[in-house]
């Protein structure tokens, strides 16, 4: 999309490009899985590239948002089973661990993350999407956890995160059966947060980015930290959350927000 905030890469020959494309635009980073001939399946190289890149991005104070997507025709079809079929059991475990590390690196990013989903989003690819804060998709999206049909189950956090999104019963249905949802059903049960027709995903993302830029970067990071505590800690108290909120009371961003309110103008954020 011309003029997009996302700088979406065009489809390219995977033999001539890295397995992960990274585009920066004014604090917005788009990570594009780039193995289109195998529907962006996660081999060791791609899993390690995602983990390393996400860990580096986590140190960037100017970062506002990370968008994760795949080079068409898919978001991510899961682990590269062709590669895995040639591995020893020990190597298969290392492959699973590498995918889990990639998923956790995305989950631990200190800023909002969005999975932009077109086409297949399956198995480890679906776990990557679950690790994001939001999932935006077009109607070509198909989401599922087919691991039980291969004799395993989701090993990169899907069993933990899926019930939090859709409830235990629906999660059990999907995980026990291994069936794949179309975009409409995934949206209906809350697995997809926003849904659009094909060709409109970038427009939907750009609209959300415009809304995000009106929010103070420090406040957004604090909200992300609070949500991470709520979702990953067994006993979170109001005092734990208030400690994150209290730190904002003396921040320059809060001062600017108050001034902008009094002066009836939009706030001007340092990393806006």
Number of domains: 2
Mean pLDDT: 87
Note the total helix count.
Answer: 11
Detail the poorly predicted runs. 8-15
Annotated CATH architecture of the largest domain: Alpha-Beta Complex
Strand order of the largest sheet: 1-2-3-4-6-9
Give me a quick take on this structure.
This protein is α/β, with parallel strands linked by helices and 272 residues long. It has eleven helices and nine strands. Strands 1-2-3-4-6-9 form a six-stranded mixed beta sheet, sandwiched between helices. It has a three-stranded mixed beta sheet with strand order 5-7-8.
Structure description:
The chain has 272 residues and is α/β, with parallel strands linked by helices. The chain has helices at 44-57, 81-84, 89-107, 124-131, 158-166, 168-177, 183-188, 201-212, 217-232, 238-246, 252-262; strands at 20-25, 28-33, 65-70, 113-117, 120-122, 134-138, 142-144, 180-182, 194-196. The strands form 2 sheets. Strands 1-2-3-4-6-9 form a 6-stranded mixed β-sheet, with helices on both faces. It has a 3-stranded mixed β-sheet with strand order 5-7-8. Helix 1 links the parallel strand 2 and strand 3 (65-70). Helix 1 packs parallel to helix 3 (89-107) and helix 9 runs antiparallel to helix 10. Mean pLDDT is 87; it is low at 8-15. One of its GO terms (biological process) is fatty acid beta-oxidation. Keywords: Isomerase, Lyase. InterPro entries: ClpP/crotonase-like_dom_sf, Enoyl-CoA_hyd/isom_CS, Enoyl-CoA_hydra/iso, Enoyl-CoA_hydra_C. GO terms for molecular function: isomerase activity; lyase activity.
